[in-house]
Each structure stands twice: as C-alpha cells, then as structure tokens.
Design goal:
five-stranded parallel sheet; three-stranded antiparallel sheet; 8 helices; single chain; binds adenosine monophosphate; alpha/beta; 50% helix; Rossmann fold
C-alpha cells in the first residue's frame, strides 16, 4: 500500500509517518529528511538546497523530482509499500509523480490530507526537538524526552531545526498556502484524497487513519 501525506508544516506528517512505518511495515521517504541528510553530508545537492531549506522556501522542482525518482527506483522490496512525506509540494511535482509512477508501474492508494489550524502549527513547531542521531521527534511540552536534551531511543542529542523559528515558520506556512494547497485540489479531483483532523493528539490522529484502512 502506497501513501502520500499532505498538509501544512507542523500538521504531523512526520510523526504519523513514523507510526505508520512501524505498524504497517512501510518505507518512509521524507524529502525534508533526505535534504537535511544531503546538507549534513555537504553533497552537491545539499549545497544547492541549503539556502532554500533554511529560509523556508521550496527547493526547485527539478532537483526534488530527480531526487525522489532515484528513491522510487531503489525501494526496499521487503516492505509493504511506501509513504511519501513532504512530496509532492507543488502541482508540477504531482504531475511528475504521476508520470514516474506510470513508468514504474506503481500507484498511490491513499493521499492523506492532514488538516490543521495555524495556532496549533505554531505551538507544535516552536516546541519541536529532533534527535540528531536517529531523527525521532519530541516536543518540549507534549512529548518531552525522559532526560532533557537527550533522545529516549538512542541517547542522541536533541536539537531545534533552524527553520523552526517563528519567522521561518510563518514563511513556510505562506509557501504552503500558495504552492501546496493546490496539490490538495489536484488529488481531490482524482478522488483519492482522505481528510484527517490533525488538531488532535498523535494517537487520535492515527486512530482516524486506522479507521480509514479498516473500512477499505
Ligand atoms: P520538511 O521537513 O518537510 O518541513 O521540509 C523542510 C524544507 O525542505 C522545506 O521547507 C523545503 O525548503 C524543503 N523541501 C522539502 N520537501 C520539498 C519538496 N517536495 N519541494 C520543495 N522543497 C522541499
């Protein structure tokens, strides 16, 4: 089963993808995570992406499309499918994805649209902390680690993403409204979009996904 997760920054896509990955045995492809890894490694792609990622703007479509194409051509066959998290983010990316999937004889079964309010996004992103080592996600209030600043799973150092500051968050939300909201309409027209209320806790959000899969 293959999924696309759509929604504003802070809507909970990454958190739900982690839960789905573990419970449904899926491969998690997060374009944000891939870009951050490329930046950390100092690769050509990482160097090109840096200024866009740090200011909260979108990385150019051609870079993202070829990056994701390589990942789709190299999927782990022991998994039950994949989750695209953070891609597509523009209508051009959605069209490119359709083309790629056609060529690879694959399809998307569900597009989950995480619907969330701005105030919730702001609170979530300002308090978000991420493990530098394994990528696990925490929140200083809603999901604090057992030991401050350290990951419960691997003991790695927790850090605040550079783009999780109030100014950059505002820009990312604006970019989302302008460029990614039309992607929601793109999939609505195709009839595979399912809306999920993600103003609630991570468990309550996942419960809605479970219900949806039960009724399929
Ligand atoms: P995320 O971790 O999904 O919030 O993504 C972090 C940043 O990576 C975004 O603000 C963009 O700069 C960049 N990015 C991630 N995915 C995409 C995409 N599909 N298209 C363009 N830029 C992206």
């Amino acid at each position: 089963m293959n999924f696309v997760l759509l929604g504003a920054p802070g809507a909970g896509k990454g958190t739900q993808a982690e839960i789905m990955k573990a419970r449904l045995n899926l491969e998690h492809l997060s374009t944000g995570d891939i870009l951050r890894a490329e930046m950390k490694a100092g690769s050509e792609l990482g160097k090109k992406a840096k200024q866009f990622v740090e200011s909260g703007s979108l990385v150019p479509d051609d870079l993202i499309i070829s990056m994701i194409k390589a990942k789709l051509q190299d999927l782990d066959s022991s998994k039950n499918g994949f989750i695209l998290d953070g891609f597509p983010r523009t209508v051009a990316q959605s069209e490119a994805l359709d083309k790629m999937l056609g060529e690879l004889d694959m399809k998307i079964d569900y597009v989950l649209y995480f619907d969330v309010d701005w105030e919730v996004v702001k609170e979530r992103l300002l308090g978000r902390r991420v493990c530098r080592q394994c990528g696990a996600i925490y929140h200083i209030k809603n999901k604090p680690p057992k030991v401050e600043g350290r990951c419960d799973i691997c003991g790695g150092e927790l850090y605040q993403r550079k783009d999780d500051t109030e100014e950059v968050i505002k820009n990312r939300f604006e970019v989302y409204k302008e460029q990614t909201a039309p992607v929601v309409d793109f999939y609505k027209t195709k009839g595979i979009l399912k809306a999920i209320d993600s103003n609630v806790s991570a468990e309550d959000t996942y419960r809605q996904i479970e219900e949806l899969l039960k009724n399929r």
